[in-house]
Each structure stands twice: as C-alpha cells, then as structure tokens.
Design goal:
The chain has four helices and eight strands; from the N terminus they run E-H-H-H-E-E-E-E-E-E-H-E. By secondary structure, it is an alpha+beta fold. It is elongated and about 65 Å long.
C-alpha cells in the first residue's frame, strides 16, 4: 500500500500534545506533583516562604511543558524552511513486506524503518501519526482516504504492527 505523508504547521499544531516524548512528560508531571506535595507540607509546617517556592516551581514547570511544544513547532518549521525552502515536506510511504519505506519527494531520499520500531499510532481529526520507540514521527494525512482505503490502512497497521499502541482523539 502506498500513501501520502505531509509535514506542515497545521499538522504539528493538531498533534501538539503528542510532540513531547511521553516519558519526559511523565517525569515533569511527577516533579510537579512532588513540588505541590512539598508545598503543602511546607504550608502545614508553617514554612510559608518554602511553600511558595515549591508552588511557584510547580507552576513554572507545568507552564514550561506547554511552552516546549510551541517552541518545538516553531523550531521544526524553521528547519523545514531552511532545509527545503518551503513550509511543508511531502512524501510517500510504502508498506513493504519487511519495512516501512518513507520517500521524500523534494530530496528523493529514502528512509527504511522496520515495523518492529513502531510503537504508537495516534489518530487526530485530520491526521494519523506513527511514532517510533525513540519518538520519531511520521504523519499521514487522513483526507487522502476513502472509507475503504482507511479500513485497509488500519488493517495493514494491525497486520504489520500488531503490538502498536493506538491513541484516538475524539
């Protein structure tokens, strides 16, 4: 099966909450909760300045997490502009017997990825995103699918990558 891949700013914004590696997000959330806990403990012990420091630290970490994805989108868009002289990268993906082959239309480059490195399939309103174990992303524009080809695509994912985690946004 051959499908179209597209990377542009709209796609990145739609997938913004998935751009940061889940493991890194989890660590930041744990630290935020720890800071909140320490803030509450400090408040109970009447160490108010320490409670405020921990509370401010938790808020800053949480806000920084939301800002990181916005900064990441800007960085990727600058890299696309610098590398390709455009605002989008297009290509095609071919599902071979053993590998997923990604072809860049502009550079004519080819990247082969083993199906075994694929970890997560994210579905949003307009895109599918395939993430590798190291959190590399390949985007698939859903507008190219008919009801039948979408069904074929999902069956192919199930067949070639049976262990893949699926996340569907409503």
């Amino acid at each position: 099966m051959e499908i179209h891949t597209l990377l542009n700013e709209d796609a990145l914004h739609e997938l913004r909450k998935h751009l940061i590696n889940p493991g890194n997000k989890k660590v930041i959330y744990i630290i935020c909760v720890l800071f909140l806990f320490l803030s509450i403990c400090s408040f109970i012990l009447s160490i108010y300045y320490l409670a405020m420091i921990f509370l401010i630290g938790a808020v800053i970490l949480y806000c920084e997490l939301t800002m990181i994805s916005k900064k990441l989108i800007k960085k990727v868009m600058r890299q696309i502009s610098e590398t390709y002289g455009s605002t989008a990268v297009e290509g095609k993906i071919i599902f071979d017997d053993d590998d997923l082959k990604i072809f860049n239309q502009k550079t004519k480059g080819e990247l082969c990825l083993s199906y075994s490195v694929m970890k997560t399939l994210v579905e949003t309103k307009n895109y599918y995103a395939l993430f590798t174990k190291e959190h590399q992303m390949t985007l698939i524009d859903k507008q190219q699918f008919t009801v039948q080809t979408k069904k074929q695509f999902l069956q192919l994912i199930d067949k070639k990558m049976p262990a893949i985690k699926k996340q569907i946004e409503k």
